[in-house]
Design a protein that fits this description.
By secondary structure, this protein is α+β, with helices and mostly antiparallel strands. It is built from 1 helix and 3 strands, in the order βββα.
């Protein structure tokens, strides 16, 4: 697939109970992906690839900013209660 881009982003849910089993989703409270029982569509595969590239870019950029003194450290993480 040349120049393939996603038309939408991965669905985000707050709690696992919200997952309807119909599409790929990311759950905030347990920080995991939920996949439908069927095979992922090309669009869903592209969404995962796109997310991986974005995460790698962010990780590298924050590292560079820390090294250059533009950032004091890594962002804090927050846990939902």
């Amino acid at each position: 697939m040349e120049n393939a881009y996603t038309e939408s982003t991965i669905k985000v849910i707050t709690d696992p109970e919200e997952y309807d089993g119909q599409e790929l989703a990311y759950c905030i409270s347990d920080a995991r992906f939920y996949e439908p029982e069927r095979e992922l569509t090309d669009e869903e595969m592209l969404q995962l690839i796109d997310l991986e590239h974005k995460n790698q870019y962010i990780f590298e950029r924050i590292g560079r900013e820390i090294e250059c003194g533009k950032r004091a450290g890594w962002p804090q993480t927050y846990h939902l209660q």
